[in-house]
Amino acid sequence: MELERVVVSSSPHLRSPATVPVLMRDVVVALVPAALAGIVFFGYNALLLTVASVVAAVAAEAAYQKVAGKEVSVGDWSAVITGILVAFNVPPSAPLWLPVVGSAFAIVVVKQLFGGIGSNFVNPALAARAFLVASWPAHMTRWTSPFDAVSTATPLVTMGSGEVPAYADMFLGNIAGCVGETSALALLIGAGYLLARRVIDWRIPGAYLGTVSVLSWILGPRGIFTGDPLAHLLAGGLLLGAFFMATDYVTSPVTKKGRLYMGIGCGILTVLIRLYGGFPEGVSYSILLMNLATPLIDKFTGPRVFGHAK
Question: What is the per-residue pLDDT for 308?
Fold first, then answer.
């Protein structure tokens, strides 16, 4: 053996070719169908909101890292994803400054102040949505119908009074809602791409959507087993949250069993908030709460260390 060709180093000894920029670019590609659907249904303001949000997120990250004397890492595309997701979580009639403020909050307060990528304890985009809802509820709940921009209610609101939009409209995205959450078809195309590329694991979205389906069917408005699980799957930001935000590497469990628990927990909380809470939508707060539980889930689902008791 030619010993001079043997490299001695500390672990890990096996390295994946997947890098952060490669994974992040795949997520951006997967979000393109939903972005296009938002522009088609809600017009140019949806495009302007997305562009403004992305520019604000990238600029906020670069500015903070410059001021803090850190290496500028906007080339890893993570700030781009945060900007897109913040824009996807605001109504299409929102003023341009709203996602700009949200993106800056997500990047500086939720991500960079806690150490940057890999150190944030909750999803930055969802934390920004919660911040915007608490600070400017009027702007964050002003919904418009597609194409004609007439003020209207979202399906989750009308479902409370027994009015369910046509499933075809909900599947295509011809309903009121946030910029990037209304088209189930576009989101599923992106989700299929991420699953095919193995960027995300099926366990979190599978357990999440399965739990919402079963629980919303059981806890129906006219008694047990009278719910409409398909309407709950297609309405609101459930698909966007399940595939693109609950699966965030940093804030979700690392073990396979833990990911199932994460998905089930998100599903239970979402249904309880939707059916019995003060907000018609429960996705954001469900994922944020389960983000906080992730260290505990990892602690109890991790493999036993050799030589130590469970």
Answer: 66
